[in-house]
Amino acid sequence: MARRKKVYEGKAKILYEGPEPGTLIQYFKDDSAPSQTEAAPAAVDGKGVLNNRLSEFFMAGLNSIGVPTHFIRRLNMREQLVRMAEIIPLEVVIRNFAAGDLSSRLGIPEGTPLPRPIVEYYYKDERLNNPMVAEEHIVAFGWANQQDLDDIVALALRVNDFLSGVMMGVGIRLADFRLEVGRVWEGDFMRLIVADEISPDSCRLWDIRAAAEREAAGAQGTEPGPLADVYSELARRLGVLPSNVTHTTKPTLIN
What we know:
Blueprint: E1 6-9, E2 13-17, E3 23-28, H1 47-64, E4 71-74, E5 79-83, E6 86-87, E7 90-97, H2 100-106, E8 113-123, E9 132-133, H3 135-140, H4 146-169, E10 172-186, E11 189-195, E12 203-207, H5 208-216, E13 225-226, H6 230-238
Antiparallel strand pairs: 1-2, 2-3, 3-5, 4-5, 6-10, 7-8, 7-10, 8-9, 10-11, 10-12, 12-13
Helix pairs in contact: 1-6
């Protein structure tokens, strides 16, 4: 078998050259990245398999409703074929409830519903700890233009509507999540697409179902909390859990 050329390796994924021009193979690792507020285990057995299945589920769902993504198809348990895209160097964070860094920055109690979804931007540079940036910075430094930003917001809100509805349907509250956006060209026409992955690594998920069960039993503390055993539990509720993968861990939280 021919040795594949590695294009990029991050904490959770490896990208290889794809079999056709303009494609990549995205390999999901078991490694976990720590958030800015807590450590995560160095590796979680089976996490890559589950994130591959979950990201396929969400990306294919977005494609089916006309939201463009880089996802083409899943190849095997750990790999999927994706479109090559020029990644805009921003993490786009969509917040539905106050949590993490937003709560600490603004003094809003965690769990408070926001009056509308809030879109924030963070410059992707781990040496700088991915600092939060304003639209003025983004345009001034040429990372994206104003039309790109308008399109990114529209794209992010459509993704938010889709994910929030899917999660609510299985008893989960989507508090916040992050996206990466890429540019692709079709002839002279450029458009923006959802890239990277959508998985528990990039979402803050609260378990509404468990809170409702505690309330029905008359227990104290009936506010939604983090989803226990997040990777396998989310996959189980969505019906995409491989039968041979089980483990327990927390997701990487957005700050």
